[in-house]
Recover the amino acids of this structure.
């Protein structure tokens, strides 16, 4: 019983290009993975955190974070599955990207509450601010996508533990970019709760600069 969180942190961070795994890159002096784990624990609704690290950086991540650290896999789905295998008897499991390390506690609480209210899969999401167009491979506009009803999905995503296990067991070669996508693939319903702009994913150098500015402003 309880709430476990799996923190995928096993990516290499190619787009950030820091020369080390992105989760070990510091935001204002604290590694992203440490900030992500501390944020989950600070919410007061998470009992156990399992960090999934690049296999060659398990010790280093164990040194900087409060979570239990296990080796990850060749892509995000594989890494989450390896973390999920380490979850004990928790009945709620969160999956939270190390790269979304400034996510506020309110989002963690809202996701857990919605799972506790009976939803098998819950994602935080925020309205898309930009006008969205679909283009062909040459960059020519194919159509304008109606922004009404479009939301950008964040993490932590929350699941009934059995639902998430079934979704990963059925994933096979399916490479969804998030865990809710795997639940949808087995016919499960996914609901949203309000996300938060501070839960943005640090992908590029610009994102890192914005994260540093956000920490300085808080
Ligand atoms: N991730 C993971 N295992 C992988 C790949 C990604 O645990 N094999 C994690 C990352 O560490 C990150 C999250 O999934 O916390 C989201 O992935 P992304 O932002 O794409 O991070 P990276 O894969 O590290 O970055 P890039 O794609 O630029 O290399
Ligand atoms: Mg990646």
């Amino acid at each position: 019983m309880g709430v476990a969180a799996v923190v995928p942190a096993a990516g290499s961070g190619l787009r950030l290009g820091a020369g080390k795994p992105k989760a070990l890159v510091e935001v204002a002096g604290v590694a992203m993975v440490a900030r992500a784990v501390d944020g989950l624990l600070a919410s007061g609704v998470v009992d156990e955190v399992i960090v999934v690290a690049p296999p060659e950086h398990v010790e280093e991540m164990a040194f900087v974070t409060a979570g239990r650290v296990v080796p990850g896999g060749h892509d995000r789905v594989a890494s989450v599955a390896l973390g999920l295998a380490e979850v004990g008897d928790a009945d709620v499991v969160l999956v939270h990207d190390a790269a979304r390390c400034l996510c506020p506690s309110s989002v963690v609480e809202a996701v857990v509450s919605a799972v506790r209210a009976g939803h098998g899969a819950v994602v935080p999401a925020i309205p898309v601010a930009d006008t969205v167009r679909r283009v062909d491979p040459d960059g020519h506009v194919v159509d304008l996508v109606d922004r009404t009803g479009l939301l950008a999905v964040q993490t932590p995503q929350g699941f009934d533990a059995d639902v998430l296990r079934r979704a990963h067991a059925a994933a096979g070669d399916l490479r969804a970019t998030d865990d809710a996508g795997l639940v949808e693939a087995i016919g499960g319903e996914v609901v949203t709760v309000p996300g938060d702009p501070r839960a943005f994913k640090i992908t590029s150098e610009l994102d890192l600069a914005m994260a540093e500015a956000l920490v300085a402003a808080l």
About this structure: The helical segments are 32-42, 58-64, 76-84, 105-116, 161-169, 179-185, 205-217. The chain has a mean pLDDT of 96. The chain has one domain: 3-217.
